[in-house]
TrEMBL record:
Signal peptide (residue range): 1-24
UniProt name for this protein: Transcobalamin-like C-terminal domain-containing protein
Gene Ontology molecular-function annotations: cobalamin binding
Keywords linked to the UniProt accession: Signal
Source domain of life: Eukaryota
UniProt xrefs under InterPro entries: Cobalamin_Transport, Transcobalamin-like_C
A Pfam family annotated for this UniProt entry: DUF4430
Domain (Transcobalamin-like C-terminal) ranges: 57-135
GO BP annotations, alphabetical order: cobalamin transport
GO cellular component terms, A-Z: extracellular space
Amino acid sequence: MAFKVAALLSIFMLTYLLAPLVITSESSYPISLLVYNSLTNENNLTFTTNIAYRGILLGAMRNIQTVNNNFRFTTKEDPNYGPFLVSVNGLAGDNEKHTYWQLLIQPQNGTIIIADVGVGCYIPNPNDTVILKFTEW
Ligand code: B12
């Protein structure tokens, strides 16, 4: 009997000590992705996904591509800066026409900022809307 009580007490103690570790462990969070062509009047597309805790935007884009047929993209590896976003849904930037896919971030407060790194380096914050904007430079 005493053994059973001791065993039960140990289980309670362990649960009590380990619960905070489990509860505070970081988990994934939602972000949205908006595809916007500023050069035509094509409809915008919006996607949502969960991104790993401090995961990179490229990972989130791959997740969306895996589960959604309406989102396809290609990148080209740059030796210095990693992946350059070349095309979205078959539409590619063009050096001669001076067009490209610009990377914009809209946090929950609504202010739109231009990302200062590419898709392989950018780490979205929870509930960010990432805007892929086809535009001219
Ligand atoms: C010109 C330029 C551009 C042009 C390039 C097109 C062209 N044909 O000129 C355009 C406007 C397309 C561009 C876009 C972007 N750029 Co830019 N760009 C530059 C700039 C001012 C000069 C690059 C250059 O001509 N070097 C000289 C040539 C001879 O060397 P190169 O190796 O061949 O250059 C190529 C690469 O730099 C590449 N490139 C340019 N920008 C970027 C960004 C990324 C992420 C990648 C992978 C490659 C890449 O395009 C160049 C021409 O082919 C640099 C800053 C600098 N002073 O170096 C920033 C710079 C490289 N760009 C930067 C960024 C952040 C971007 C964007 C992500 C901005 C955005 N929010 O949209 C986008 C890329 C989006 C995407 N589609 O992936 C950052 C990269 C930092 C990083 N660690 O990721 C830099 C360093 C500026 C900064 N903020 O400090 N860019």
